[in-house]
Recover the amino acids of this structure.
């Protein structure tokens, strides 16, 4: 696992350097060669009809971590929504009201959504189907992001994912005092609502508190 995180750190630093000095703004760029190469067989698969390289964009995103330190993370989304998503994360960052645990490309977890969630990683594009179906996930289209999965778990009946999110899956446990927890009307839901994205916390029959999608 340490080796995986070392690769993620090198990738983050390399892309940040190639993007140049961006100050505190979210940057949007085409997928660089080394990132695209790393995606193969991980977050991008030739056996599924996911967006091709030119239809995707890499965002370098400033954020405040759980210790209040300024960080920069990486996120891939569809090029068609990249500017909107960049604007939402810029609004969240500038508000200084919300913390993000980490933001690594899901390739650092070999494309495993479960491993990414278990590590409380904020992620976007991942060429995969919805669990138990052959249907492409919104993540596979680059039209969804998951934020702080542990504090904002997926809940369906008795199932909570990730398991560490069980202490935040009941309404009475979802308190504003919990760092990284998303609540209706906060800066995160407001920023994504402004760009026309829906929040999984508003789902009727399940709750997907981490999930925003167009």
């Amino acid at each position: 696992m340490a080796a995986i995180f070392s690769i993620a750190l090198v990738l983050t630093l390399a892309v940040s350097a190639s993007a140049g000095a961006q100050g505190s703004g979210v940057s949007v760029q085409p997928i660089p060669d080394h990132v695209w190469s790393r995606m193969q067989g991980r977050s991008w698969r030739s056996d599924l009809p996911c967006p091709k390289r030119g239809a995707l964009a890499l965002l370098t995103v400033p954020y405040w971590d759980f210790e209040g330190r300024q960080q920069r993370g990486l996120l891939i989304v569809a090029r068609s929504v990249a500017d909107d998503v960049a604007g939402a994360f810029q609004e969240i960052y500038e508000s200084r009201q919300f913390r993000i645990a980490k933001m690594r490309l899901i390739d650092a977890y070999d494309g495993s959504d479960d491993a990414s969630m278990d590590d409380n990683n904020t992620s976007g594009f991942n060429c995969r189907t919805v669990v138990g179906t052959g249907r492409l996930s919104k993540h596979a289209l680059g039209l969804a992001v998951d934020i702080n999965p542990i504090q904002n778990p997926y809940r369906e009946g008795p199932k909570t994912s990730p398991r560490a999110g069980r202490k935040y899956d009941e309404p009475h446990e979802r308190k504003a005092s919990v760092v990284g927890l998303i609540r209706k009307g906060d800066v995160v839901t407001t920023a994504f609502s402004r760009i026309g994205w829906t929040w999984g916390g508003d789902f009727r029959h399940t709750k997907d508190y981490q999930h925003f999608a167009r």
Summary: Confidence is low (pLDDT under 50) at residues 1-22.
